[in-house]
């Protein structure tokens, strides 16, 4: 078995793509957690213990040039 640190914020960010309308409208949802849970289970199936890290660094955003 191995321990590995993973970027939990990044996983949640990716998971948010599954339910953007619900999140924007403030509807109750936990669909964004499914991606993270699937990743955790995948690592555990390969005898890897994930250590979820929330580093607080800002996530990338798109900069739109309306020029």
UniProtKB/TrEMBL annotation:
XPG N-terminal domain ranges (all copies): 5-60
GO terms for MF: nuclease activity
InterPro entries (alphabetical): PIN-like_dom_sf (IPR029060), XPG_DNA_repair_N (IPR006085)
Gene3D superfamilies reported for this sequence: 5'-nuclease (3.40.50.1010)
UniProt cross-references to Pfam families, sorted A to Z: XPG_N
SUPFAM superfamilies, per database record: PIN domain-like
Protein name from the UniProt record: XPG N-terminal domain-containing protein
The species this protein was found in: Phytophthora sojae (strain P6497) (Soybean stem and root rot agent)
